[in-house]
Each structure stands twice: as C-alpha cells, then as structure tokens.
Amino acid sequence: MSEDSPKQSPVIIITGTPGTGKSTHAQLLVAESPIPLKHINVGQLVKDKSFHHGFDEQWQSYTVDEDKLLDELEPLASAGGIILDWHTCEIFPERWADLVVVLRCNHTMLWDRLEKRNYPLKKIQENNEAEIMEVVLQEARDSYPQQIVVELKSESSQDIENNVTSIVSWIKQWLKDNDCKIEDDMDKDTIS
Ligand SMILES: Nc1ncnc2c1ncn2[C@@H]1O[C@H](COP(=O)(O)OP(=O)(O)O)[C@@H](O)[C@H]1O
Fold first, then answer.
1. Cβ neighbours around 3 below 10 Å, total
2. Where do the annotations place ATP binding (predicted)?
C-alpha cells in the first residue's frame, strides 16, 4: 500500500479459482465494512458491458478485451473504495492494489461446488487442476508485493466469517494509516 495515497479508501482484490468463494466474501465484506465499498464482479462486468471479443467455446469463457476493461476500471481504482472480484488478478496494475486476497479451497470441495454450478466436466477439471497447482496464488505473488498478498482458506462458513473479520480489521488499520475518517452516512452498494 502506498503511504502517500490520496485515496480515502482502499482497493481490495479478491481473487481465486472459480468457486472458491470470491463473490460470497465480497458481498459479506460490503455489508460489514466500516466504509462504503463497491463490489465489482469483473466477470459479470465483462459480460454486461461486452468488454470481450466473443465467447470461446473451447475454453467456455469470454476472450476479454483488456484495454476496454482497464479503461473502465481505472477511474474507480484511482478513487478507491472498491472490491475487484475476479478469478485472475495479474491484469490489474500493481499501483491499484492495496490488498490482494487469494481464496483457497480443498480441491474435492471445489469440484462439488463447480458441479453444482453445472460447469461442463472439462471446465471443472481445468479449474480443479489450477487450484491444486496454486495457479492464482502464484500469479498474485508474481504480480504484487508479497506483503499485500494474503492467502485465505475458504472451506466453511466459519472461514468466511473469520476472513471477513480480518479484512475488516485490515481496512480499519488502512484508514488509520492513511488518516481517513469513517463516515456513518455513506451508502454501500454493489455494481457489476
Ligand atoms: N467458505 C465457504 N464455505 C462454504 N461454502 C462456500 C464457501 N465459499 C463459497 N461457498 C459456496 O461455494 C459456491 C461458490 O461461491 P462463490 O462465492 O460464487 O465463488 P466464486 O465467486 O469464487 O466463484 C457458492 O454456493 C457458495 O455458497
């Protein structure tokens, strides 16, 4: 985190293999944060605003138009107060990020979660393998200073509560470190 950041609230990236609990964490964090945070579900944003070059049937995912996506997010990241929720993070410039949370999950549990989502078998296998190989964790460690990258277990509801509590503590400390005030009457919302 930058010591002399003019932002009044931080940018938090929540990343992890699909199904590890990013959106669940982000939603609870919005509800429990002492300051307003916007939850940006980046995958949904890509779809809604067509920041892509089409759907890749083989990979069952959109081919993202990174320039358009970054242009949209830049002013939001500069202002702060956002949670970027996506299954990849290296695209986000290092200067944006104050905290990078990487959610992790046992691969058997992850398999069940993705099956419930009706993902095709190939996509479940790929994501499962990525989780076992720690692909997203490695990407985060390669892209941001090690002191802002935090790996958190997301296997139970207790994990979610504990994780959100510790992120809220981190936010409070960030606000103190950056001489920012907590205002009671600010709205909280979610955008995609
Ligand atoms: N820590 C957890 N404990 C139990 N269930 C979880 C946990 N994290 C996520 N889930 C469940 O797994 C599914 C995927 O969660 P979601 O937040 O949509 O993941 P992501 O945003 O990473 O794709 C949801 O049904 C959610 O309730």
1. 6
2. 19, 21-24, 117
In a domain, 6, yes or no: no
Whether residue 80 lies inside any domain: the answer is yes
Whether 56 is in a domain gets the answer yes
Q: What's the 173 CA to ligand 1 centre distance in angstroms?
A: 27
| Alpha carbon distance 54, 98 (integer Å) | 31
88 annotated to a ligand binding site: no
Q: Which two structure tokens, joined as six digits, stand for 48? A: 């809604």
Residue numbers of the domain that contains 127: 11-174
- Residues 76-87: tens digit of each pLDDT: 999 999 999 999
Asked if residue 61 belongs to a known ligand binding site, the reply is no
Residue of 118, 104, 110 lying closest to 149 (CA atoms):
104
ipTM for this prediction: 0.99
Q: In ligand 1, which atom is closest to the CA atom of 17?
A: 22
Is this model's pTM higher than 0.90 or not? yes
Q: 158 alpha carbon to ligand 1 midpoint, in Å? A: 12
> Is residue 61 very low, low, confident or very high in pLDDT (cuts 50, 70, 90)?
confident
